[in-house]
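Re: your question about 2-phytyl-1,4-naphtoquinone methyltransferase

S., sorry for the slow reply, the queue was backed up all week. Below is exactly what I fed in.
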Amino acid sequence: MNSNEIRDLFNRIAPVYDQLNRSLSLGQHKIWKLMTVKWSGAKPGDRCLDVCCGSGDIALLLAERVGQMGAVTGVDFAVEQLAIAGQRNPAITWVEGDALALPFADASFDAVTMGYGLRNVTDIPQALKELYRVLKPGATAAVLDFNHTQNPLVKAFQNWYLEAIVVSTATRFGMTDEYAYIAPSLERFPTGETQVNLAKQVGFSTVTHYPIAGGTMGVLVAQK
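Result:
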């Protein structure tokens, strides 16, 4: 898919996105997002950015963490997702923007998160470069996504889960084609080890990829 097709897809699924995520993860997705926020190092009073914020889950968790003295911005290129996010918390700054050309100055944020966005950008190194650019020196980016595992048992489970659970559930919402894209996008997605190398290549100093949820998901943690 090109970037316009990806944006259109996320605009189409916006009305059912949150409900489907809850169903498909058996409610576990919030735990994974809390782990991501924790690994970002966000603390009270910080200025934080959530890239590919979608309907705002991680940005809302960041807002709880930084408190009233902090500030959170969520950025996404799907305006329908941003419209839903804005209704959930008008105090967060919601910005329409591209993860490959973030509309923020260098070294603007104390922590950056990204949930299920890196797999969908058309240029992963450029997206990582933008995360690096907008972070303050010493700050951390935490990137949550499916894990492109090399473990045959985990891979077999992922394939079964995507076909039997994800696509089947999406079909009941009339979103078969929109969610069938996940399996091929995961196949193209770099492994955790490759993500670590890519992050180091754009300048991050300390990088670790943590497999979570039995290895089906992963969080890339990269410090500038």
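The chain is about 45% helix and 20% strand. The longest strand covers residues 135-146.

Happy to talk it through on Thursday.
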